[in-house]
Amino acid sequence: MNEKNSWINKLIGIFLGNQDKKFHEITIEREVVEEIIQIARQSHPLEFMAMLEGKVSAGTLRINGLVFVPGDTSNHGAVMKLFMMPMTTGTVGSVHSHPIPSATPSSEDLHFFAKNGLFHLIIADPYIEESIVGYDTFGDVINYKID
To answer: What are 16-28's pLDDT values in tens digits?
Structure first.
């Protein structure tokens, strides 16, 4: 993972409340990945979107669940009504599908990433493990492992 050490990124981290959530590794439980693949396939050709649930502990961000929030989907995008998300969830990012063979984030995706968590996933058609790409808050590709 690339660490951003510039003063502006530190300031943004403080503003977003992420300064205490430092990690050097990301793991996603295999069951979560299998659920993401299944939901993306069932939703096709529409996009799906959910929040990632997890926590940072001992320098590792561990993703252990999905949180579904009401919203609207189409084959051009997905929108969540985040004001309806329960306050007790431990969301750390998001996941959504692209019904095309590209997991490159759109400008709307980048805007969402910047405001909603530490780690984001995009799964692209054909909705397999290898078509899932992870991104940080800034939209830079970030590595993760599945266990």
So the answer is: 454 556 889 999 9
